[in-house]
Fold each of these.
Amino acid sequence: MKPRALRRGSHEERPVAARILDGRAMADRWRAWVKAQVAAFRDRTGRVPGLATILIGDHPASQSYVRAKQRACAEVGIRTLHHHLPGEADRRTVLGLLGRLADDPEVHGILVQLPLPPHLDEEEILGAIPLEKDVDGFHPWNIGRLGLKGRDPYFVPCTPLGILTMLQEAQIPIAGRRAVVLGRSRIVGLPMALLLLRLDATVTVCHSRTPHLAEVTRQADLLIVAAGRPGLVRGEMVRPGAAVIDVGIHRVPDPQAPGGYRLVGDVVFEEVIQVAGALTPVPGGVGPMTVAMLLVNTLKAAQRQVEGSASPWPEPPPATAPL
Ligand code: NAD
């Protein structure tokens, strides 16, 4: 890691500005790697990795996430099949579709876009995805295995896996470090905490009922922020030199911006950049890595189903220059 400039003369020396972790550049390298792997898989097996996406309802953000995932798949040669069900689709319809996709040998991965309409039971729907096709890694078995040291899940959820990959590529140490995770959702916070625990960090998980948040966050060498609250983390909540990963994504109205809005995270970027040692931007940080890891997971799903084995960890890393 490059040494950072220090502001001298004050009572406390502190970094002038954090290193920005460029998620777009890292994701580009991973996409190129997956593309080459998909081509090699096709040459070896005559098969093409296939991802089925299911969107229930017309949530605009969900529609754009699914479109982005489909586009990314197409770019690397992964075939996608999209199923758009009406928001009032009942459980039998959804479970019937999942059953057909489970039996389809051309479908190696199944992704149900969250959130589901409130009348559907998330546990039941996600639990109906076969383990070996659970490319989002949200099945209780996959989450459970993530928490067991010495046992591997089939898949690690894409956002925590993307964050881990960013930390590793940026050579930010994890073992023995104090990690604080804001958020305990199934998608980000909980699997992130389990992953960091596996990698020997000392982990604290905070949530909406955690009092005196700043006292906890200031102890973090690694601060993962996935609370879904714009502007939650201010500069004074961050330990000087800490690595801060901003997972939040929010549209805030901005008449100057194209489309009338801009994207911000859970972290007050201009403040935290003055204190942290490393920081992910929004946009262009965790988001692109999440999509890249979905491609990695879908490739691995196809390899496991067609060729019999695949590790859940995205190794070997892209053979391009490190940061
Ligand atoms: P969620 O609403 O399911 O969970 C939020 C979590 O944060 C909850 O566990 C809650 O207890 C906790 N929380 C709420 N307020 C808090 C506070 N004041 N202090 C500490 N903890 C608090 O959200 P999620 O699905 O985990 O997503 C979190 C954010 O990350 C959202 O902004 C979402 O859009 C974004 N996200 C980004 C990506 C990506 O690829 N960049 C992927 C998934 C989610």
Amino acid sequence: MAYVIKDACISCGACEPECPVSAISAGDDKYVVDAGACIDCGACANICPVDAPVAE
Ligand code: SF4
Ligand code: SF4
């Protein structure tokens, strides 16, 4: 399991510093999660203003 950032992402960057394992980085058109590093903590989903990160 890992969180995935959906297309709703507006690239605000708020989630990146919240991730305890630095799994989030800026992608071409949205932020992206390194599925291999994500520990499913949910911090990104909690801070995101548009609910873009979802658990998959
Ligand atoms: Fe990082 Fe937690 Fe979001 Fe996974 S769920 S990307 S570990 S903040
Ligand atoms: Fe995208 Fe939400 Fe992260 Fe902002 S907090 S960069 S909108 S996923």
